[in-house]
Amino acid sequence: QVQLMESGGGSVQVGGSLTLSCAVSKSKPYSNYLMGWFRQAPGKEREGVAGINFDGEVSYEDSVKGRFTISQDNAKNSVSLQMNSLKPEDSGMYYCAADSGWASTIAAMDPDYWGQGTQVTVSS
């Protein structure tokens, strides 16, 4: 079992920055998971934004490449998403997720566990 809790969402103007954090609690501390951030805007399907595996290999959705950075601190059991140069289309509910399987890209992830989400609003 994995419990995920996001924090750090909020409102920001176009071009601004936000950092999202996800606290990870695992029933088996040494189990490994693919970790990812997903987002969902009103009326749209949830989409993968960024993913990272235990070795630190990362994957990004094309629209956020060069602007978002995913990182993890295995010692602190946390995953972060640094978001820069934010655009209105980045607005939505952002979810932290954990996948017990394997995927080479964020698009291929099929998470088993989800956090409750944190809202990001980018206004012009």
Mean pLDDT: 94
The amount of helix comes to under 10%
Number of strands: 11
Coarse morphology: globular
- The radius of gyration over CA amounts to 13 Å
Percent strand:
over 45%
Task: Explain the overall architecture.
Helix content is 0%, strand content 51%. With 124 residues, the chain is an all-beta fold. Strands 2, 4, 5, 6, 9, 10 and 11 form a seven-stranded mixed β-sheet that branches. It starts with a strand and ends with a strand.
Task: Spell out the blueprint of helices and strands.
Blueprint: E1 2-7, E2 10-13, E3 18-26, E4 34-40, E5 47-52, E6 58-60, E7 68-73, E8 78-83, E9 92-99, E10 113-114, E11 118-123
Notable characteristics:
124 residues, 51% strand, mainly beta, four-stranded antiparallel beta sheet
Nutshell version of this structure?
This protein has 124 residues and is mainly β. Helix content is 0%, strand content 51%.
